[in-house]
Amino acid sequence: MEEFAEVKISGKSYELPVITGTEDEKGIDITKLRALSGAITLDSGFKNTGATKSAVTYLDGENGILRYRGYSIEELAEKASFMEVSYLLINGELPTTAQLSEFEGEITNHTLIHEDMKRFFEAYPSKAHPMGIVASLLCSLSTFYPDSQNPNRTEEEIELTIFRLLAKLPTIAAWAYKNFVGHPVVYPKNELNYGDNFLNMMFSLPSEDYKIDPVVSDALNKLLILHADHEQNCSASTVRIVGSSHANLYSSISAGVIALWGPLHGGANQAVIEMLESIHADGSPLEDWINKAKDKNDPFRLMGFGHRVYKNFDPRAKIIKKAADDVLSKLGINDPLIDIAKQLEEVALNDEYFKARNLYPNVDFYSGIIYKALGIPTEMFTVMFALGRLPGWIAQWKEMIENKEPIGRPRQIYTGENERSFVTAEKR
Ligand code: CMC
Prior knowledge:
Layout: E1 3-9, E2 12-20, E3 26-28, H1 33-37, E4 57-60, E5 65-68, E6 71-72, H2 73-79, H3 82-91, H4 97-109, H5 115-123, H6 130-144, H7 155-181, H8 194-203, H9 214-226, H10 234-243, H11 249-261, H12 268-282, H13 286-294, H14 315-330, H15 336-349, H16 352-356, H17 363-373, H18 381-402
Bound molecules: carboxymethyl coenzyme *A (CMC).
Carboxymethyl coenzyme *A binds next to helix 17.
């Protein structure tokens, strides 16, 4: 039976349809509200606004549930490869053996970037943040493949762009790191799997081949899967909104990378490690840091804590916390930062301020500790997040295009001056 919501504005009632998702979540369809009543809705930060209907990822923040295309994050992190998950997100179903091997084959075929792009790296300052380089080079790909700029591409052309993006991001990311440390770049090795090829390009040196440790390889696979999608977050919404103007896919993804860079989003993983290092170096009691985070006059926040949608726990954080313990013990690393992180979590979870606001550790709280153990420098942490998030951004963009969604263009409530006349400078 069709359901309606009643909205009363200036004494007049309007009926608006209520739509229900496959997990029974409800939304009021306000598409016609302005035409009917002249009013719009206002929701700063879109805290209560659905931007789209989507079949990619289901997230229940109250119960700590995250599923890609119906599969739980716990099961995927345990049993799947990142390539299977990428295929799943982009195409909607898990691949058969033949489909997976074709998908991996196509990606492997496109791992090289044009030699002219190598010169871009030389022009960046040596300590350029890798996120800035990655975003610029992803956008630059559209100039090397000008066909991608045609908004009326065929399905095959779109698929080729998707393969190129998935194939080239690890190369661009690893080369941005090489620029950061001032080492020569390492070319892709096509006999290696997706994650191992990335590790090899990051850590091999002309003098010494990198030996891939299966513990490191497994941990990377898990981390990439855990980051692969997170429905309509800041960067996915950016990719969808930029793509909705029919800007090309490379540039839409590049915009997503920039949105991810901020410390309130993916940049939090770098900020967490920097915070833990400051706590370690400072040596003051953890309570002092907690009090700082609670003080409204102090801009400091407990990085890696809190989430817009998770109000109970972040299921990714649970898996990552365990993975961090496993990786550190298997690699025989004793990192004081993990002890500080655990103590901080304990203190915060028992503190009234954090309890009252439902602030729990998020995905970024422990991920940096694993990246650090894998030998990845802090400045690369958010790039690692981008590497994992790429199939999710692609899936979100593809869905938006296939659903023929209109250009994203929010409205506003104007609060400025009413009309007034121009006054010449000498009379002001
Ligand atoms: N430390 C201290 N107080 C906090 C924190 C924190 N990390 N997070 C939220 N609060 C307080 C905030 O001050 C506010 O208090 P009050 O109600 O008294 O004004 C209340 O909790 C609600 O916070 P909010 O900023 O309105 O919540 P939001 O949903 O707009 O923001 C958030 C979510 C993730 C931006 C925020 O929790 C935060 O800044 N966390 C730290 C940064 C971080 O770890 N980001 C990574 C998110 S997970 C990766 C991803 O998917 O992007």
